Amino acid sequence: MFARYLLAIAAMAFLLLPGHGLAQEAEGIRKAQVLQQAVEAMQKVLLSGPSVVTLDNRATLKLPQGTGFVRQPEAGAWASASDYSSDPGVLGMLVPTSEQNWVVFIHYRSGVRIDDAEATGWNADDLLARLKANTEEGNAAREKRGEPQLEVRDWLVRPHYDEAQNTLIWGAISPEKGGEADEGTANIHGYALGNEGYFELTLVSPAAEVPSYVPIARSFLAGLRFTAGNRYQDAAKGKLEVRPVTSLIAPTSPDLRATALAYLKANWLWLVAMLLVLAILAGSALRALRR
Questions:
Q1: Nearest to 242 by CA among 198, 202, 199
Q2: Which of 109, 141, 147, 286 is the most exposed place for a label (fewest CB within 10 A)?
Q3: Beta carbons of 197 and 248 less than 8 angstroms apart
Q4: Sign of the four-CA dihedral 275, 278, 280, 282
């Protein structure tokens, strides 16, 4: 099932983690058990592709073969077990049902109208410079929180806005400061714009593998369609906050997106470490039974 690939990554992640004391190990075992329960609950409600998922009664999303969707509250329980902060905008998760190393978090942001006028004339080099500056500016606060500092080096996926479908996709190579570009994890960000909000699809994968998953991110974004009355061209019903489309790449508040990236990276390693602990415990139990 979809959880199988996490165990494969866990072996690599565990080698990067420092040693822990007995108290930390006991807490890790407890969290691993909670996480196992969450994964088992996810497997019970997994909707496998090919299929179509309805998102918040606003849009539909096509699930290709080899992928699956996990709804709420099971996706939220997994996020909580993995130490992700609670976010009411999380609608669910997309996961591979084959041997691939990615997950996609689906959020819906309401009450916002994204103005796409800037997309017709933006300069990707200028956007990259802004993103680099924002990330560097956020490093001081990140250091105070005990989080790793980051640096943006180049585009992983150059920002592309599809005017016909009102979708945006981008990704940056942003490892820990001074680290190798293929270490840790990387994200690909996809957005589908509606008349009163937007869907955000964030693909998370090991940095060394993420380039191979760009087509998957694109396919999910292409398969998301707002229903009538919720499309970008449909009239909005209420008063909305208006933001430029470039705010989805380099926010006005510089620390928000960089912090989210650091948080995903930190929790990815925690997740796979917990799964590895669980695998070790299972192996120990089997050896004990054989004696």
A1: 198
A2: 286
A3: no
A4: negative
CA distances from 231 to 79, 117, 210, 218, 248 (A): 29, 17, 30, 19, 18
The answer on pLDDT for 252 being more than 50 is: yes
pLDDT of residue 233: 97
Question: What predicted TM-score, i.e. pTM, was given to this entire model?
Answer: 0.78
Q: How far apart are CA 177 and CA 182, in angstroms?
A: 13
Average pLDDT over residues 213-217: 96
Q: Which residue has the tokens 């609608």?
A: 91
Distances (CA, A) of 232 to 52, 86, 111, 200: 21, 28, 13, 15
Listing from the earlier edge strand, what are the strands of the sheet with 59-63?
51-55, 59-63, 224-226
Mention every residue, 6+ apart, whose C-beta is less than 8 A from residue 105: 90, 93, 201, 202, 204
The whole-number average pLDDT for the span 91-98 is 91
**Burial (Cβ within 10 Å: 0-12, 13-18, ≥19) of residue 86:** exposed
| Mean pLDDT of the region 76-80 | 78
